[in-house]
């Protein structure tokens, strides 16, 4: 190889080596950037709060109750006073066997004209509650066998029904009634219908209501009443600190508790779980867990992409290292040729 050719080859190899070194530096910078991104993602993972399912204990509370005859009372507040007595509030609960309750709905047939409609369910014509005016009692399976005196008693009873219905659904409401025989007791049971429901329903071409219409009857209903801030109560505890007895005093004409008076009731302790609150908390947990899992999957997917990119850069860097080793070997060989040519030239002109 001639001197000029060797010099040109040396310069080409040196330029290529510099390019390889520069490309290697660029790859190392890219890998550093990827490493920083990956570290940020891992820091995000470490900073995420793992959702924890709600504990039943957090939604369970101790409830104290006591019975007062047919009434069940649940204590809602017990506040100790400076004199050692307690101010107590509680909810009183009882069953009212003479209450208006919902009954089975029915399809109703309507005949007549607006303002003068007659409503029927099957063969039974509904009549105005508390009145038989204009009503054919002989066509009524229940009324036809009643004497005039019994019908008068029934109207008084229906006035009581009407008062209950108006108290619950509004004084302006009007009601119709029909009686149905109970196959078990052989007694007739009243069923009440709001006139407003009957008038406002939609009827088909055969004058039948296109949907069932609500009705009501007399039955049992659980009722509650809140008794607030009863003063002068005393409460007894056992050795564990659990409340076991409560004494509610009698009061004078001014409403002040009379000392050493009242009735003592035994307290029953139960643990009650707030199902609605627990269910809400569990739903929130499921939602948070879903979002957490989605975030974890998203970050892991990004980390996998970074790892794949880094792997490709690592392979490219190894290729450059191999290429640089080959270039260095060839440069050493060309340098030796140049040195040999130079030495030969000096001898020729020496």
Quick structural summary:
With 350 residues, the protein is α+β, with helices and mostly antiparallel strands.
Could you walk me through the main structural features you see in this protein, from its secondary elements to its overall organization?
This protein is of the alpha+beta class. It has three domains: 123 residues; 80 residues, no CATH class; 104 residues, no CATH class. Helices cover 42% and strands 31% of the residues. It contains four helices and 13 strands. The protein has a seven-stranded antiparallel sheet. Strands 4-5-6 form a three-stranded antiparallel sheet, with no helix packed on it. Strand 2 and strand 3 form a beta hairpin. The longest helix has 75 residues. It is elongated, with a radius of gyration of 47 Å. The two termini are 22 Å apart.
Please describe the topology of this protein.
Layout: H1 3-47, E1 60-68, E2 71-80, E3 86-106, E4 109-113, E5 116-121, E6 124-125, E7 127-128, H2 148-169, E8 175-181, E9 188-194, H3 195-200, E10 213-237, E11 243-248, E12 263-266, E13 268-273, H4 275-349
Antiparallel strand pairs: 1-2, 1-13, 2-3, 3-10, 4-5, 5-6, 7-8, 8-9, 10-11, 11-12
Helix pairs in contact: 1-4
Output the strand order for the largest sheet.
12-11-10-3-2-1-13
Mean pLDDT: 87
Strand content: 25-35%
The rounded Rg comes to 47 Å
Strand and helix order: HEEEEEEEHEEHEEEEH
| Largest sheet properties | 7 strands, antiparallel
Distance between the termini: 22 Å
């Amino acid at each position: 190889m001639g001197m000029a050719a060797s010099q040109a080859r040396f310069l080409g190899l040196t330029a290529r080596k510099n390019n390889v070194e520069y490309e290697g530096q660029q790859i190392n910078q890219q890998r550093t950037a990827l490493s920083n991104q990956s570290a940020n993602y891992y820091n995000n993972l470490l900073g995420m709060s793992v959702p924890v399912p709600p504990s039943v204990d957090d939604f369970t509370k101790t409830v104290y109750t006591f019975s007062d005859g047919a009434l069940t009372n649940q204590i809602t507040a017990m506040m100790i006073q400076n004199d050692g007595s307690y101010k107590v509030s509680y909810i009183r609960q009882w069953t009212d066997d003479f209450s208006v309750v919902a009954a089975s709905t029915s399809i109703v047939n309507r005949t007549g004209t607006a303002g003068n409609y007659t409503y029927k369910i099957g063969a039974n014509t509904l009549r105005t509650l508390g009145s038989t005016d204009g009503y054919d009692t002989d066509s009524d399976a229940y009324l036809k066998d009643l004497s005039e005196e019994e019908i008068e008693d029934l109207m008084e009873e229906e006035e009581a029904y009407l008062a209950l219905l108006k108290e619950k659904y509004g004084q302006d409401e009007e009601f119709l009634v029909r009686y149905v025989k109970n196959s078990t007791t052989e007694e007739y049971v009243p069923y009440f219908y709001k006139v407003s429901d009957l008038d406002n329903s939609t009827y088909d071409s055969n004058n039948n209501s296109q949907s069932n219409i609500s009705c009501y009857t007399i039955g049992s209903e659980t009722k509650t009443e809140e008794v607030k801030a009863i003063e002068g109560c005393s409460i007894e505890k056992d050795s564990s600190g659990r409340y076991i007895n409560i004494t509610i005093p009698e009061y004078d004409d001014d409403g002040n508790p009379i000392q050493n008076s009242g009735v003592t009731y035994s307290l029953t302790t139960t643990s009650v779980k707030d199902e609605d609150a627990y269910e809400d908390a569990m739903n929130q947990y499921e939602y948070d867990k879903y979002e957490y899992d989605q975030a974890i999957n998203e970050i892991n997917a990004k980390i996998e992409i970074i790892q794949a990119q880094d792997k490709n850069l690592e392979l490219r860097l190894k290729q450059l290292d191999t290429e640089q080793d080959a270039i260095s070997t060839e440069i050493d060989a060309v340098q030796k040729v140049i040195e040999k040519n130079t030495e030969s030239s000096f001898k020729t002109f020496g």
